[in-house]
Amino acid sequence: MHKMENTGIGTDIVGVQEFRNFNDPAFSQFLSRNYTRAELEYCLSKDSPAPHLAARFAGKEAVIKALHSLKIYHIFFPSIEILNDEQGVPYVRIITDQTEKLTIKLSLAHTSEMALAFCIIIQET
Amino acid sequence: MTSFDENTIRNIFCEVLGLPPQDITDSLAYNSCEQWDSLKHLQIIAMFEERFGIEIEMDDIIAMETFGRVKEILHKYLS
């Protein structure tokens, strides 16, 4: 049975409008710094990339907040990869040398204006 | 690598946050400036890296909580 102290939660909401200038050189630098190649390939393959970029940003923030609630501070944006399985369900891969055993569940949603994410992490002891 | 230039740092803040130069003081803080959210913070970092040709470590990104602290940390990379 999992204890509450081993459970982290995080949530975030961002405006989609901020991501509509994804072709701007300065914004491209931000994207390549904080998104993985696979994430960018997925988002930029969409007719409208901005909501997908925004949802992933919210997802990374939600994961970081959930990690912080477990006192895990060394994982940052570029180390968090959010992709989708065959059913479109998002899954999270943490790219790190350290060996925390984490079960991460993430839910993303967006409208044309806002994107939000909710994350639950269970840390195995 | 480009040398330290406070005007370039201030101009990046103005550009990303949409604030006039006179609002960018050393006490301008992440947790009290409405425009300075996590997305804008990472955009500012990306612009520093691109303009100055540096790569800023995660601990320093998190420590950049005021404009004054940003300048102190960038000094370390650009001196």
- Helicity range of the residues of chain B? 55-70%
According to CATH, the fold-level topology of chain B is: Non-ribosomal Peptide Synthetase Peptidyl Carrier Protein, Chain A
Under CATH, the topology of chain A can be stated as Ribosomal Protein L22, Chain A
Could you give the order of the helices and strands of chain A?
A: EHHHEEEE
Beta-strand content of chain A = 25-35%
Instruction: Determine the N-to-C terminus distance of chain B.
Output: 10 Å
Q: How would you sum up the major sheet of chain B?
A: none
CATH homologous superfamily heading of chain B: ACP-like
Helical stretch tally of chain B: 4
Q: How many separate domains of chain B? A: 1
Q: Class of chain B, according to the CATH hierarchy?
A: Mainly Alpha
**CATH-assigned homologous superfamily of chain A:** 4'-phosphopantetheinyl transferase domain
Q: Give me the strand/helix succession of chain B.
A: HHHH
Low-confidence stretches of chain B: none
The assigned CATH architecture of chain B is Orthogonal Bundle
Radius of gyration of chain B: 11 Å
Helix share, percent of chain A: 25-40%
**Broad shape of chain B:** globular
Mean pLDDT of chain B: 93
- Inertia-based shape of chain A: globular
